[in-house]
């Protein structure tokens, strides 16, 4: 009975989240520098002849929306894995410094190829995620060795404290590099670092999509190990899981997701924290369900933040990462008070 | 512990006197070096000459007194202010991770400066300082509010987490506002943290605040020692803990606000210095506070010299350098505090 009701609830939650996502999707297409009514959008989609809104809708607004959804999914799943694998409800790629590690690598890349614009070379867009990934891995590696102690392994609290420290170090390195850049690259880097998806083209989506297509199925496949790891190390070993090996694999996946998202979207913090936490409230801790629902919540949250970032202070646009932080930080504080 | 042990106390006092004496000498020397060193190198003797007999007709004297002097004085003042603030916070809250930047006091001050910049485009130095005081209180209030609301109070770890969350929140709001009001570039100065290009007009108003706060800090230093042994001990010894805490936090807010209004966000000074000092001179805050003042000033003056030497003619923000110095230390503390 119990099992069945939970299963039903899961379906209801997914249903409502999908509707919410669809509504946000339409709203995101409508709102912007010029308002396009949903009816006009509908006509534009259906008509075979090129309409007046086609350029704005399909080349400006749609790639941005798709990218927001993809990044939302990637960050949320990354956060969900981190939280389960480290048994730490406060883990998030942004707070732990994985994002700033990836950001550092990207800034390093921009620094050495100064003057070359992001969009001018398509190749760059495909190279950046690889760089970001290396940076994210470096950060994760540093966090892991500094928080590992012979006596007690990696405790959740130490992990997060060390993460804050690593975050500060990478941020300092980023500032040092940034100030050596020419003014244009500097501004570009600043905007990108605060998490930004304005003015993106389809090529950004193509750069991120392969990573998600490869990584997400592996994550889903590993979800059952994640369930076991949540029970704690002793229990997991008892159940015959090679704890350290599985955890390393899962962390690697989380780092890969966060790194590739940072490469195209910049440093978006707190999304990886909030989305899995909300999802857990909605559907409980079973990872086979939790991971997809987290992804959905992440997509909804990021699309909502994008809408806010474009409309709240219009005509100026604020980086989406700032909106996510403004929503996520209070939630983080709430969790802190409760725990 | 040291208070109860006679030989230790005299040893600690000896160390403290050595630190203050030699620290001050080295501080003065490095300030002189810092003044002499720059785009045009100036002899140390000329530096001395311009201080004792200032001649406005000489260009070098003008450079020294009007350009380089305010910078180095700012570095020394900011460094000692942040170090004292950190020492007081660590003593009063008995929390080894307490320091102005981790507790969100600095980010609060920066936030208020950003708001003031956005709404009053041009800010007088005194106005900036006033905004920074208000902001520092907001930042500290928020972090302590979280501490009061949470069930087990503010453990060291929670404090660091709450501080970084508040910092993220305030800085994202102020960045958004800065972008909207087109003051993002002005604001980036406060975030990077540095003493480059500082004029007497912005250092001047902060000097009386520093002097008053330092006197207050030394006056309550023995009470802080008692507080650092625990609330129960302090009450048992008949101390007015509420009064001491109020004065202590007032001093912290004044020092941090004034420091941020001069130099923007410079972290880790208030964390690292008091720990080093406690290691050297024990737990008596009558010794810790003067020593922190001297070494904090020294550290920031040296870091500022480093900031100019790393990549001339560009300047590396001193805040970033302090972070690179401070992070290994923070990691060490994190390993110690986060473990069981």
Overview of the structural elements:
The complex is a heterodimer of chains A (339) and B (340). Chain A has a two-stranded antiparallel sheet. Chain A has 13 helices and 2 strands, in the order αααααββαααααααα. Chain A is mainly alpha-helical and 339 residues long. Chain A has a single domain (53-338), classed as Orthogonal Bundle (ABC transporter involved in vitamin B12 uptake, BtuC). In chain A, 77% of the residues lie in helices and 1% in strands. In chain A, helix 3 (54-85) packs parallel to helix 8 and helix 5 packs parallel to helix 8. Chain B is mainly α and 340 residues long. Chain B has one domain: ABC transporter involved in vitamin B12 uptake, BtuC (Orthogonal Bundle). Chain B is built from 15 helices and no strands. In chain B, helix 4 (105-119) packs antiparallel against helix 7 and helix 5 (125-149) packs across helix 12. Chain B is globular. Mean pLDDT of chain B is 82; it is low at 1-6. Chains A and B meet through helix 6 and helix 13 of A and helix 6, helix 7 and helix 15 of B.
Give the SSE map.
The complex is a heterodimer of chains A (339) and B (340).
Chain A: H1 2-30, H2 38-46, H3 54-85, H4 98-112, H5 122-147, E1 148-149, E2 153-154, H6 156-179, H7 183-193, H8 202-230, H9 233-238, H10 243-265, H11 271-283, H12 287-311, H13 320-338
Antiparallel strand pairs in A: 1-2
Helix pairs in contact in A: 1-12, 3-8, 3-10, 3-11, 3-12, 4-5, 4-6, 4-10, 5-6, 5-8, 5-10, 8-10, 8-12, 11-12, 12-13
Chain B: H1 6-36, H2 44-52, H3 59-93, H4 105-119, H5 125-149, H6 156-180, H7 184-192, H8 200-203, H9 206-219, H10 221-227, H11 231-236, H12 241-263, H13 269-281, H14 285-309, H15 318-337
């Amino acid at each position: 009975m119990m099992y069945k009701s939970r299963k039903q609830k899961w379906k209801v939650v997914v249903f409502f989240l999908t509707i919410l996502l669809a509504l946000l999707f339409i709203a995101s297409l409508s709102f912007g520098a010029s308002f396009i009514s949903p009816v006009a959008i509908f006509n534009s989609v259906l008509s075979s002849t090129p309409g007046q809104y086609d350029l704005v809708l399909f080349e400006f607004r749609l790639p941005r929306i798709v990218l927001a959804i993809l990044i939302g999914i990637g960050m949320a799943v990354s956060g969900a894995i981190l939280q389960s694998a480290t048994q730490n409800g406060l883990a998030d790629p942004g707070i732990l410094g994985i994002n700033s590690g990836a950001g550092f690598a990207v800034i390093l890349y921009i620094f050495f190829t100064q003057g070359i614009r992001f969009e001018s070379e398509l190749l760059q867009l495909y190279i950046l995620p690889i760089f970001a990934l290396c940076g994210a891995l470096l950060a994760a590696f540093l966090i892991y060795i500094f928080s590992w102690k012979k006596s007690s392994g990696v405790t959740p609290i130490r992990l997060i404290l060390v993460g804050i420290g690593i975050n500060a170090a990478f941020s300092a390195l980023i500032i040092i590099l940034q100030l050596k850049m020419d003014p244009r690259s500097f501004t570009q880097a600043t905007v990108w670092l605060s998490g930004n998806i304005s003015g993106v083209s389809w090529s950004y989506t193509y750069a991120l999509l392969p990573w998600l297509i490869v990584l997400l199925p592996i994550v889903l496949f590993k979800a059952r190990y994640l369930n076991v790891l949540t029970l704690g190390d002793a229990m997991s070993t008892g159940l015959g899981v090679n704890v350290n090996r599985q955890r390393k694999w899962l962390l690697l996946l989380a780092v890969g997701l966060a790194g590739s998202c940072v490469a195209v979207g910049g440093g978006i913090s707190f999304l990886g924290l909030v989305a899995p936490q909300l999802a857990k409230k909605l559907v409980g801790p079973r990872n086979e369900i939790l991971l997809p629902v987290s992804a959905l919540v992440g997509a909804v949250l990021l699309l909502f933040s994008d809408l806010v970032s474009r409309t709240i202070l219009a005509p100026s646009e604020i980086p989406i990462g700032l909106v996510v932080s403004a929503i996520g930080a209070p939630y983080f504080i709430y969790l802190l008070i409760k725990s | 512990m040291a208070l109860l042990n006679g030989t230790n106390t005299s040893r600690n006092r000896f160390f403290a006197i050595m630190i203050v004496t030699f620290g001050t000498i080295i501080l003065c020397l490095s300030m002189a070096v810092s003044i002499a060193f720059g785009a045009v190198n100036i002899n140390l003797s000329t530096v001395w000459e311009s201080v004792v007999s200032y001649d406005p007709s000489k260009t070098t004297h003008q450079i020294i007194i009007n350009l380089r002097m305010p910078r180095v004085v700012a570095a020394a003042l900011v460094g000692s202010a942040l170090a004292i603030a950190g020492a007081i916070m660590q003593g009063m809250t008995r929390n080894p991770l307490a320091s102005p930047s981790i507790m969100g006091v600095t980010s609060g001050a920066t936030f208020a400066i950003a708001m003031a910049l956005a709404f009053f485009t041009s800010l007088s130095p005194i106005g900036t300082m006033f905004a920074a005081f208000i902001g520092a209180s907001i930042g500290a209030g928020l972090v302590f509010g979280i501490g009061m609301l949470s069930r087990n109070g503010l453990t060291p770890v929670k404090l660091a987490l709450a501080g970084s969350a508040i910092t993220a929140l305030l800085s994202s709001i102020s960045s958004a506002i800065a972008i909207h009001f087109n003051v993002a570039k002005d604001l980036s100065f406060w975030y990077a943290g540095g003493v480059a290009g500082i004029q007497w007009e912005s250092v001047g108003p902060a000097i009386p605040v520093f002097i008053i706060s330092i006197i207050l800090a030394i006056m309550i230093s023995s009470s802080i020692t008692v507080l650092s042994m625990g609330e129960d001990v302090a009450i048992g010894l008949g101390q007015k803990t509420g009064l001491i805490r109020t004065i202590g936090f007032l001093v912290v807010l004044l020092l941090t606000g004034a420091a941020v209004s001069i130099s923007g966000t410079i972290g880790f000074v208030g964390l690292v210095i008091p720990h080093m000092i406690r290691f050297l001179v024990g737990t008596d805050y009558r010794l810790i506070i003067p020593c922190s003042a001297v070494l904090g000033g020294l550290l920031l003056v040296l870091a500022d010299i480093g900031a100019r030497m790393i990549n001339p003619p560009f300047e590396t923000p001193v805040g970033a350098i302090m972070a690179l110095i401070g992070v290994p230390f923070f990691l060490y503390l994190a390993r110690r505090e986060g473990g069981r």
